[in-house]
Structure formats: structure tokens, C-alpha cells
Amino acid sequence: MEPGGALPKLVTRRNLAIAWVVLFTIALALPALQFHQVESKDPPDIWRGWEVLILGWLGLFYMQPAWLANFLILPLFACLWFRKWKACGILAAIAVALALTSFSCIGLYLPRDEGGVQHLRVAPLRIGFCFWVSSFAVWLAALANTGNCARKPIQTAVNENVD
DSSP assignment, residue 113? Predict the structure, then answer.
């Protein structure tokens, strides 16, 4: 590569999709949520990412909308496929914002059983949560590093017939 030449473009649609799949898969495998049992000395319950993906809809009953970010995955890939960069950026920003609402659940008390006799307290979020949020943030980072979200410069016509 000659000095001053352009760097190879590493941010491609394929690389973005691969990065998302890798981060999301890691997030599913790692611990994401931890619940401390309030009335007992039992060890904390730790949910892995796949458990949160399956049971996260229950958080909607406690005004925790973070799980809804997962519904934006298919529209994000559709925007990526059809090269709708602006829509992709907006959806990625919404997904990250929804995912970050998870921080509001720290310290929340939840019933452990149907009678409300025992309670769980949500502990600080685990490493799987970080990978889950980063799987959406990688969309924003990729779109910001490419020229795809910026407007293309308008080419002005130059009048060469100057007398």
C-alpha cells in the first residue's frame, strides 16, 4: 500500500452482521442477570443471556422495556440489506436506548413466588448484559465510521464557458 493511499474499508455489511452475531451469541452464553434472595441466605439466582431472552418479557410487568430491543433485530437487518442507512442508524439508536433502560431495574424487588411471600432483588448487571448492549452499539459505531450516514457532498456544476 502506497503512502497516503486509502485504507481498506473494513466496515462492510457482511462484517457488521458477523460482529453482531458474535456479540449476541456471546451475550446469550454468559451470565446476564443476578437476583439476590431477600429473606434467605441461599446463593443468588444467576440467569444467562438465553434465559433473559426467553423470560425477559416478564420485565414488561415491572415497566422494564429493555427486552423490546430484541424486536429491532430483524428491522435492523432489513435496513442493512436494503442499504437504508438513516433508518438503520435510527433503529440502532432506539435499540441502544431501550437496552440501557435495564439500569433502572438494579435494586428492584420482585416476588419470588406467586403468593408474594419471598422476594428477589435485582443485583448489578453481569457481563452478558454488556455484550448484549454492545451487540446493538456495534451498529451505531459501524454506521458512524462509514460515510453511509453522512450526506454525500453536492457536486456543483462549473461553467467552463467563461468569455
Answer: S
pTM value > 0.85: no
Cα angle at 136 between 97 and 45, to 5 degrees? 80
pLDDT at 67: 92
| Cell, residue 5 | 493511499
Domain that holds residue 96: 13-145
104 contacts 64 by C-beta, under 8 angstroms: yes
The answer to the question of residue 135 being in a domain is yes
Distance of CA 100 to the CA centre of its chain: 9
Contact 32, 124 (CB under 8 A): no
Place of cell 456543483: 156
Q: How many domains does the chain have?
A: 1
